[in-house]
Structure formats: C-alpha cells, structure tokens
Amino acid sequence: MGRYDMPSGSDCFEGATTLFAALVEDLTDPATAELGHHQLEELIDTRGREVLRQLFQDHLQLRERREAEAVRARRPLVVGPEGLVRPRLEWGHGRLLATVFGTVTVSRCAWRRLNAPNVHPADAALSLPRGRYSHGLARLAVLEATRGSFDAARAAIVRRCGTVIGKRQIEQEVVHAACDIDAFYDACVVEPCTADTVLVISVDGKGVVMRPEALREATRQAAAKRAHTFRTRLAAGEKSARKRMATLGVVYDAKPAPRRPHDVIAPPGGRPAGDAPRPAPVARAKWLCGSVVHDADHVISRVFDHAEARDPVRRRRWVVLVDGARHQLEVLQAEAEQRGITLNIVIDIVHALEYMWQAAWSFHASGDPAAEAWVADHALALLAGDAVEVADAIEAQADQAQLTDDKRRGADRCVNYLHTNAVFMQYGQALTAGWPIASGVIEGACRHLIADRLDVTGSRWGLEGAEAVLKLRATAANGHLETYWRFHVAQEHQRLYPTRDQHRYALTA
To answer: Is 105 a residue whose pLDDT tops 80?
Structure first.
C-alpha cells in the first residue's frame, strides 16, 4: 500500500463524484437540449459551485482520516504556545470555514489540558484563519469593498459564492486585512534610480464624512456648539462640522524635462503652426500613502521615510509640490530640517492660476473673452519671471482702475497670495531644470482614493473602516495589492501559529 493509499472500500471523494455524475447526467438529458446558453450557464454555475464545495469538503475529510492514522501510528508530544504539554486527545472537533465555494466543516483532533485552551495541530497545517472566513473569501471581500460600497460588495460575493458572509463581517474582514500594510512597506526594497532623476514629493488632504464618534475632538466640539439657523438644512455659510481630514502623500520619480513658459501656457492668440509644446516630466514609480486616523505630520513622516529609501545618500534633487497650505509647508520644512535634507519647494501652478482668474474678474465682466488673454499674459510673466513683479503689476492696475472694495477683492487676494508665496514660485528656475510644477498626481489621487470611494453619497464612516479602505486602495494604486496579500497571509500564519513548536507535530497529509 502506497503512502497516500486509503483502505480498500473507502472513497473520500464519493460525494463530489456523485454530484458531478448527477450534473453530467442532467446535461446529457434530452430536456437540457431545450435550454438556451444563458440557462446552461446558470445551471453549470450553480451546480458546479456545489461540486467544488464538495471537493473541498471531501479533501478535508481525507486529511482528517490521515491525521487520525498518523496519531494512531505514533502518538506525538503536543505542546501549547505557552509551553505546556497537552496530554489528552479528543477526536472529531469541528469548525465551520466559509470559502469562495461555500461553507465547509473542518474536523480534526484536539489536544487538551485542564484550564488551558485546546491545541489543534491540523489548524496550523491548513493555516486556518482566526475566524470563520477563509483567506480567499477575505481577499475577495477586500477587492469588492475597496472598489464599491459594502452593500455592493456583499451582493457581488453572493452572486459568485452564495450566502457565505454578511455586510458587517465584510467590514470586519476589510479592517483586519489592512493591519500589515505599514509593516509590508517597511520591509520593501525600493528600486534605485540614477542621480539625475528628480525625486518628487507631494501632500494634500480631503475631508471625509464621519460618524460623530469618529470626528476629531475639535470638530466634535464645533459640531456641539453649532447654532442652527434652520431645523432641516444649513444656512448660507454654515458648516456641517461632520468631516475628518484625510491626508495623502505621494513620492515619485521624474526624468528632468526642460521647458519654456510657452510650453505650459499658450500665448494669447495660440501657438504658431508647427510650434508644439515640449512634453512635461512624466511621473514614474508612484508610491501613495494616506491616513484618516493620523494627522498630516505622521503622513509626511512616512513620505519622507519612503523618499529616503529611494535616495539614502542624498544624491538626487528633491522637489516638493504643494498648494500653499501653511501647515503643510511648515511640517515639510521642519521634517526636512530634522533629517538634514535640502528641499526645492514649488507652489502648484494650477493653484496660482486659480488666483489669477479671481483677479481677472476684478477687471473684466463675467464671461468676457478678454479675461482669458489677461490671465495668459500674467501667467506667462509669472512662469518666466518674479512673482513679486507680477503682484505689483496687478496691484498697480487695480489702483489705476479705482475699483470698489467688492470689485477689487479678487485682485487683492491674488496679490496677497503671490507676495506670501513668492519664494516658492521660482517657476523659471523649475522649468529650466526640468522639474514638474503641477500637483496633478496628488490631486488625482485625492479624487481616486478618497472621492471615488470614501465620498460616496450618503456614506458616513467609522474610523477603522475609513482607514482600512484608504490604505488598501492606496496599496492597490501602487500595484502592490497581490504582493501585499501574500505578505499578510504569511504574517497572519505567524501570529496564529508560532513556529517554535510546530516541528513537534508533523501530519502525513
């Protein structure tokens, strides 16, 4: 008898064989010839899933039988994780396991000791999860719940697997699935780059609607003190005070791509024929991270950790793209000073253009086509020269036009913005060096990672769920979700089944 031969007369896969034979018989029945292809699909999908579930169940029964034979042949010494021997043996201890094929029962031996938890060596051999849901089902829950609502995720799982998991359990599995992401990235080895490749950092934030208990303390207090003008809606200017700021950070590489101001902003009247703009720097090897639980300081620290891993000897040029938020700037500068890093901070040109347009409406009527040429002229001057000179020119024009206070408000905002951030608006230097000057990467990440999932109409998030979904979506956007999942499963096995005592019990399955 071979090593894996079973005693004569036994067939552990008889259940699956019977189901498969019944399916084949139904498919060969003349009545089945009347079915359309879509009806055949439904029949094979439903009955075929049950065949797969039974195959899984039959294999588990085979392993149970082999475990019993191994124990009878040689009774092992089983020690629990606390170092105590389990002298008593009991057969047939079962637990349910929900899988992508359906729910099965795992029966195995239990080794017992008075006043101590049972030890099931077969659980380690199967690498069973901590709860009822298999790693395959948890992975499917993560894939579905990070791309759509939890209700939609459950509906998708039910269509594929049957009723094997509930909405609340999907939320719990998603939260647990994200627990190893920080450790995963700490262990990653970053691909090196040449010294002339620009290292770009960008940080931004976006509010997420939270449940009251998940708000930061200051926001919760503001919501409690808020006086409502109306009972059923907010009045003009009133804030709902129900959002918590999520912070995103990105690190990427970019080959320098020198450009001219006219490559960024077309001159009034358009470009001459044949004068194609030079291409902008292309973002490569983007790495995203984010957090709802932690503040901007923590996320920026993680971003710097990853950036330093890409440039440990500080040979590359570090460029930071920001929108001008003072707190972000202060934290970025403080982090760089603490680490001894020289930053080249550039204000996003798109934000600067928004202020230009505000100023334009101080001098032009709404919808006036001349406003576009006015913005283009000043934007080209900003890209080529000094922000202070542009601010002075706008201020002088406002003085000469003798605008009213209301009409002048947009121009004053633009002037103040340019004066305040002039040191970070050296666009001429940035274009000559070939640096990126727009924060489209982080802006797009805010829309994709947060708005497309966490900002679904009517959703209100708990802290753990929002954090898990944000981190998992960032991992997927980095292209690391499959690699991370293998890491997570390995970490979970180590947590549940420490390797110190596993060598004391070896199954022959």
So the answer is: yes
